[in-house]
Amino acid sequence: MDISRIRAYLDYKPVTHQTPDELFADVLQKITYLWVDEKMQIQRAFDYAKKYHNDEKRLSGEVYIIHPIKVMEFLLELTPDVVSLQVALLHDVIEDTPATYEEVKQEFWNEVADLCVALEKVAKVKYRGEERSIETLKKTFLAMGQDLRVILIKLADRVHNIQTLHYHPAKQKRQRIAEETLKVYVPIAKRLWLYVFQWLLENGAFYQLDQKEYMRIANRLEKTYGDIDAYKDEWILRLQQICNEDGIAPLEVIGRLKSPYRIYTKLNKYNTDDISKIMDIVAFRIITHTISDCYSDLWAIHKHFTPIFAKMKDYIAIPKPNGYKSLHTTVLGMFSFPVEIQIRTADMDKIANYWVAAHFAYAEQRKAVSVSEKQAAWIEKLQNLVAKYQEGSDKDTFKHELDIEILQKNIFVYTPKGDIIELPQESSVLDFAFRVHSDVWLKFKHALVNSKIVPIDFRVKTGDIIDIQTFKNKYTASKSRTKYLHTPSAKTKLNKYLRQIEKDDLNQELTPLINVKLQEYNLPLLGHKEDKILKLFPGDQREQQLYKIRDRQVSITRFIRQVYWVDLVPEQHHGPIQKQIISKKKETALVLNKDTDLKIIVDGDKPMEVMFCPECRPQSGRPVIARSWKDGIKIHTMDCVALNTVDPAKLIEAHRYWSEPTIYQAKLTVLMKDTPGVLLELLKLLEYLNINLSLLSTGHQTVWGWKDVFVTIDLPNPSKITFILKELLAKKDICKSVHYTFMDVVENW
Asked: Would the N or C end of the chain have less CB density within 10 A of its end CB?
């Protein structure tokens, strides 16, 4: 982009020399690709917007309707369809005026009203620093995923808002909007290859954020390269003559000076303040007719000027993955410093500046913008990421994946066949394998980069040719390889594959064992039409139960009895479980309901409300425990997750009325004083409580002067753990904390 355009862009003055109608008429005349009736539809949208905005004024002092006209004018850079132009004029009427969605829908097409609402939703999310940018991006990407025109109109809207931002009196708000522009909208414009929008936005935002630094660089440019503008036309004419001498008349020759923001980023990249080290500050672009003309012009340029061959790039022979094609060469001899020259056809130039390659469809179909394959893939990636975030992914994960997969500058590597693969920076050869094909990363053997064997964690760079060698019949994917992956998408693929393998192994291991036990009880096997297990635990819930069995949190027998308790427990014990008001005496064993099998041991002689946990829903045949609850008690199963946060002092013993003797194992982790005789005190306590000790071990000091003691005990009744916890915690001089988990049942059913 010409530096003069950026200068004019920043030096915006309110429109006072024209009326809104005159300005709109001038902009409308620039639209040469639409039919007369379509222009009339745009005129109707202008009249509607002007009526509703009425005499509103912006902070610049100009009437508000000027802003929608300017947005439409910027949008013309993309050759938009008639709907997009209407929305550009109407984008604020629903949000800022009495006009409603229904009115706009009735007056215009449904999609006009829908696009206005989508733009309103994006506008409502304000940037509040790095953390809040996640929400802004999410809303923006959601809207973009629905219709690409939303983000294109929003970008045009932001271009004009940044242009007039210096009229806003609040410095803090100016900087917030500028920072949001750099963090949110510039990366989107860049990824959509809307370079004109990108350059205007980044330089406008840079000017607002650090005007002093902007002016310092701009003044350096003027001081060092101030004569460029004076000689630019002369050199453009000279380049045209050079091409004409070889019989190839170019369509156009353009000269430009690198923008202040681009120079600022390059200076930071090279960690220098010396502008002279940047070799492409001055560049010329030759636009010609055909590909053969491009190479002819390149030869002609090299005959007259000395090329720096290390800086030559042939993006026609090997295009960038986004479709960019051009010849780049850097030469000496035009000025006292190197000059970059780009040579491309008119079609290449259009794609380079606007990656909305197919432009808008403005025919009778009035469809959304047609996008290229690469662009569609990027938008799909965005949609998947947003959907993942909506399903429950946390903000930190969302931001991490967003930075790596979407916004981060990528590198481009090659397969042995010459196919280009786009990867985030810092990607390993294993990341590359995941992008190629599932068979490649599943059977990964080793990698060759530029014909040399490299380790699995080797970081690839742009231009590398990567060849992945695989095993024929051996699968090497494993959890340990996660540490060699940089891209979240590759990690997700690997973890998904490993989870599926684990599930398959789990089913293969436990299904026969469960079926054997089911046969012993004459119950339906797994998968049978009368199988209650699959009905009670569908999908992932079944796997969760299998994990509990595998990890010995529950035995197969107990699991089956929990599912089929109605079939296994005598009928007289099936009665309903319900809330009751009962009177109790101290240390009284009480049957809550004649039809239930529960006995509760409580203290006190006042009437008490008995409730049952709605989460675990304790039933006959399942081990239970009670806890004090308001003016009563609440009954839980022993494995109820609600007990994890309950104070042990509030636990009360409960047991099944009809059950036969059963032994339960519990593992205690006791943080005890690291002094002689403490273990003996613990053993005496267990003996006093008549508790059988199965295993005793100690760990390392976890807190100065305290160490973990691991105790495995046998309990005839699981709720008896309450007495142990209370007795241990009462000895504060030797016991700091106690945690317990129940292990498998020692079967006696």
From this structure: C
Contacts of 104-107 with C-beta under 8 Å, sequence gap 24+, read 107/48
Local structure of residue 166 (DSSP, 8 states): G
Q: Do 301 and 331 form a contact (C-beta atoms < 8 A)?
A: yes
CA distance 637 to 635: 7
What is the residue extent of each domain of the chain?
A: 3-209, 222-353, 409-477, 496-567, 569-659, 662-749
**3-class secondary structure, 535:** helix
CB atoms within 10 A of CB 29: 9
Residue 572 pLDDT = 41
Angle between helices 36-53 and 66-75 (to 10 degrees): 150
d(CA 535, CA 619): 18
Selecting from 3.20.20.80, 3.40.50.720, 3.30.460.10, 3.30.1490.20, what CATH number does the domain 222-353 have? 3.30.460.10
In one letter, which amino acid is 615? E
* Superfamily grouping for domain 662-749: ACT domain (3.30.70.260)
Q: 683 CB contacts (<8 Å, ≥6 apart)?
A: 693, 696
Query: Strand 339-345 to strand 327-332: parallel, antiparallel, or no bridges (unpaired)?
Result: antiparallel
Provide the CA 199 distance to its chain's centre, in angstroms: 26
Q: Do 63 and 49 form a contact (C-beta atoms < 8 A)?
A: no
Ramachandran bin of 524, using left for φ above 0, alpha for ψ from -120 to 50, beta for the remaining angles: beta
pLDDT digits (tens, 9 = 90+) for 211-235: 998 988 888 877 777 666 666 778 8
Tell me if residue 664 falls in helix, strand or coil: strand
Question: Is the distance from CB of 253 to CB of 341 less than 8 angstroms?
Answer: no
Tell how far CA 16 is from the center of its chain.
45
Q: Does domain 3-209 have CATH number 3.90.1150.10?
A: no
The pLDDT of residue 659 is 46
Give the global pTM: 0.54
How many angstroms separate the first and last alpha carbons of the chain?
A: 83
DSSP letter string over 294-341?
Answer: HHHHHHHHHHHSEE-GGG-EETTTS--TT----EEEEEESSSSS-EEE
Q: Diameter of the chain by CA atoms?
A: 114
Of the candidate CATH numbers 3.40.50.720, 3.10.20.30, 3.90.226.10, 3.40.50.300, the domain formed by 409-477 belongs to 3.10.20.30
Cα(400)–Cα(487) distance, integer angstroms: 10
Phi then psi for residue 12, to 5 deg, are -75, 135
Spatial distance between the Cα atoms of 2 and 236, rounded to a whole number of angstroms: 13
Q: Decide if 282 contacts 339 (C-beta within 8 A).
A: yes
Rg (CA), the chain: 37
Half-sphere exposure of 266 (CA within 13 A, CB side): 15
pLDDT at residue 573 in the model? 41
- Residue 339 CB contacts under 8 Å (≥ 6 apart), including other chains: 282, 283, 284, 330, 331, 332
Give the integer Cα–Cα distance in Å for 694 and 686.
11
DSSP codes, 254-270: EEEE--HHHHHHHHHHH
> How would DSSP label each residue in 126-144?
---HHHHHHHHHHHHHHHH
List of the chain residues with pLDDT < 50: 355-372, 569-595, 603-605, 657-661, 744-749
Per-residue pLDDT tens digits for 1-42: 566 778 888 889 998 889 999 999 999 999 988 889 999 999
- Give CA–CA dist 153/384, Å, rounded: 23
CA 509 to chain centre: 36
Q: How many CB atoms lie within 10 A of CB 133?
A: 18
CA distances from 117 to 78, 155, 197, 662 (A): 22, 16, 23, 65
> Which residues make Cβ contacts (< 8 Å) with residue 340, sequence separation at least 6?
279, 280, 282, 283, 284, 311, 328, 329, 330
How far apart (Å, rounded) are the C-alpha atoms in residues 457 and 212?
A: 44
